[in-house]
Amino acid sequence: MIISQWRLPGRVIPANNGRRRRQKGEMAAATGENGVSGATAVAGGAQRSRGRPSRKEAEAIDRSVLEAARESFLAHGFTATTMDAIAARAGVTKATLYQRYDDKVAMLRAVLHERVAAWSAVSDRRAVNRGDTLDKRLEHYARSITRWSRDPEVRSFGELIRECWGTARAVAEEMQTIRVTRMLDVIEKDIREFGPKAGVTAANPRLIAELFLGMIGGVHRYLEDSGQADDAAIAQLCLDQAVNIFVAGKSAW
Predict the structure, then answer these.
(1) What domains can be seen in the chain, in order of their start residue?
(2) Residue 202: is it exposed, middle or buried by C-beta count within 10 angstroms (0-12/13-18/19+)?
(3) What is the pLDDT of residue 50?
(4) How far apart are CA 83 and CA 73, in angstroms?
């Protein structure tokens, strides 16, 4: 049999070799390497891509959604932020967003809880510097509250919560309760534990903790009203003096 051929220097390539390769390629596309038809392989791949995300992917989506919601709420406020805008910012569909949160109020609640948890974790890491006496621990709390009150993100969320008193009051009240309750729990615990070491056993430790927080709040209002809130030295002096006066009256606790 005579085979037509192209002649190249040093090589002979049968002309029908290209046709055989094309046929082999077409057969591979039709059947796949494992004997599965090409249509089935494509369909299978598409089905996997449309399947439920893995746990890791779902967690990444959750983080992306919360971050997008936080940025949107802080940039535009609660009223002006829409679920459409959050979905677009997070790079997810509205269906994905609504699978996780029923509405914008639920979205806001999730964002605030996430932030409170993050701030609490930071406070817990700083707790090693609270001191080993009641006086030192109360001074630490006064300074910590003041430091947090100056934090830009905390201040921004404070403004957001104030806006929500008219539009999402239940969430605002919930956040206020969580924030205050956590501080009261910590201070009350220290009054119970360190009070006796300082020679005083409070009749109502919870009430003393509430009065302490009220006093710190009063100092902050005084500093703001007098235009001295941004003067760290004066603020520290006022807070230390207030704590000293408060502790000096511990015999009346």
Answers:
(1) 55-115 (1.10.10.60), 132-252 (1.10.357.10)
(2) middle
(3) 56
(4) 11
Q: How far apart are CA 247 and CA 140, in angstroms?
A: 13
Q: What is the pLDDT of residues 117-138, one digit of tens each?
A: 888 888 777 766 778 889 899 9
Q: What is the pTM of this model?
A: 0.65
Nearest 5°: CA angle at 173, between 139 and 87? 110
Minimal CA–CA distance to 248: which of 145, 130, 135, 146? Answer: 135
Task: Please identify which residue in the block is written with the tokens 């936080």.
Answer: 70
99 Cα distance to chain centroid:
19
